[in-house]
Amino acid sequence: MRFVKRQYVLSWYFFKNRLQRYFWGASILFFGAALVTGVVIARNPQLLSQLLEAISATFTSKGVYRADGGLSLVAVLFGNIRATATTALMGLVPFLFLPLFSLGVNAAILGVLGAAYTSYGAGLFTYLMGILPHGIFELPAIVLSCALGAYLCFELVCKLVGQRRGVPFTAVFVNALRLYLTVAVPLLLIAAPVEVYITPHIFALFL
Q1: What proportions of the chain, in percent to the nearest 5, are helix, strand and coil?
Q2: pLDDT tens, residue by residue, 23-66
Q3: Nearest 5°: phi and psi at 49?
Q4: Could you tell me which residues come within 8 angstroms of residue 157 by beta carbon, excluding any fewer than 6 positions away?
Q5: CA distance linking residue 60 with residue 53, whole number of Å
Q6: Which 3 state secondary structure label does DSSP give 91?
Q7: pTM for the full model?
């Protein structure tokens, strides 16, 4: 228990002193991009339809749906963990800041779904009821993974150009990994069962 407590203390210290600005910056970019995407796509019904088909095909190909049409808890959980971990690890590619691309893709999906609900008459409130129950856990984990990836990329670039000579990159990576394991993964562990078992029932009340 003492070991676990220490990991959370170290994670909080790292977040407060190193990652906080990346997280809030990524949050602004994420929700801003989602809003802009939703507004733009809502004005183009044909493009909206095409994007919805592409999103549906993507989720189907990932095997998140059971034979009865419901969501698979295991597929949702491990899919989210794999996606967020991959996003964070993209930061190990220097100079390109690939996690920001992942951030944009997730924001665009959120915006397209929002445009669909508002364009097809379901309304924004119904849309929010379909994402907020699990989204309050899942979305911070997504943004956090992108922030971690951007941080890793920036620190790696600084190391390569000689601006971080006194700080070993292994320490940077360990701090990022600790925060991912102590914060992002627990958030996803909560989000998955909420998405599978609770959100559909709440969403059904507003259809």
Answers
A1: 85, 0, 15
A2: 999 999 999 999 999 999 999 999 999 999 999 998 888 889 88
A3: -60, -40
A4: 94, 95
A5: 10
A6: helix
A7: 0.95
